Amino acid sequence: MGSVEDLFEGPATGLPAPTPRGAALYAEVTGREAPVRHLAGYSVFLGFCAGHDVRAEELADDPARLMWFLHAFSAEIGSETAVSAAAAVFTGNTIARLRPDAEWTSYEAGSPLVGNGQTKFEVGRLLGALRTADEDSVRGLVAKLSDWAREPEDPPAIRPVPVPPPAEESRYVRPALPTTTYYSPEGAPIPYGGRWGADGPAPDSYSVDSHPERFAGLHVIALALIDHLSALYDVDVDNDPRHAAELLTDAGEVLQAVRLTARRTTAAPLTFVLTGYPGVLIHAGLLHDFPFPVCGCDACDEPAETVADRMEMLVLAVAAGGYSERYPVGRRRWSEYALTAVDGSGSESGSGEPGPADAARLQEAEVRLREVARGWRPWPLRS
Length: 383
Known about the structure:
By secondary structure, the protein is an alpha+beta fold. It has two domains: 43-150, no CATH class; 203-370, no CATH class. The chain is built from ten helices and eleven strands. The protein has helices spanning 43-51, 56-61, 63-72, 74-78, 81-96, 123-132, 135-150, 217-232, 304-319, 359-370; strands at residues 103-105, 113-115, 120-121, 235-239, 254-262, 270-275, 279-284, 288-292, 323-329, 334-340, 347-352. A five-stranded antiparallel β-sheet has the order 4-5-6-7-8, with helices on one face. Strands 1-2-3 form a three-stranded antiparallel β-sheet. Strands 9-10-11 form a three-stranded antiparallel β-sheet. A hairpin with a 4-residue loop joins strand 9 and strand 10. The model is unreliable at 20-31 (pLDDT under 50).
């Protein structure tokens, strides 16, 4: 066998592109690349195993034996950086093999993770824990991996198919956004959306929010969308700050809240909350909040134009019936959404624990969502 990295499914590849760290409750998935289940970089660990007269392929086939091996030689593995890094990759590949829905993921300024949508393991930390673990803790880890491997897969998300309004109906036209130049403390113009090079954001940029005022134009976009929807669709429009209470996330300073309710019980309502950040929070359907922007920090570097793109995609898709929700999903009783753009140009989905909601609200959502199990229906057009 030597040091050839061929013990796992398919060719060994690199990590997927890192996902930006944000403040959203739900992990969005848009235009995903192929999942990584066989990560390269473990050949040094193969040599380590051979040096201890252990066949690495047997460890790859037996996660329990691998955990005990890592525990037994944890001090030796931890003393060599190259061996430790390779052992982490090997361990992650072994974990990924346990389930068909498992894969590697990475985040900006974070350690790689391996797992599925509900459970992920940070293998570097796992190896560190094994260095100080007692035998009961190792047995507990082995049992956790075994239980996770046997958990049934959740049913796939429903992919809603939107119904675009007739071609002869009025089209939404985005109002002009302010064209303001913002400057760094050194006086240089900031090219939002392209300020970081191949090395990625500066480490200290994650905690800095230099110019949130660049998102003020999102209020104009939100009000234009409200006007467009109320002109095109048969909806009730209620402008009342009390509707901000429908959010499952903290909006902070609320400037305005507008709820649009289509005159069709199987169509999803939309609530727009304009905040003093400035930004917009939109509550779609029953259990999902969508923040615009998700995160305005300097590291995320998002310009107002791309935030407006995402907001328009959500709102127009919901009105056209391109939105679905499910709750509860799986053993963990998570909530889930899926979204398809009106023109079919993109889609996204997300799942996670429902936001802070009382039991009565969750029960009501569970009952109502059974009525729209194939997705929320399009809003009715004005006659």
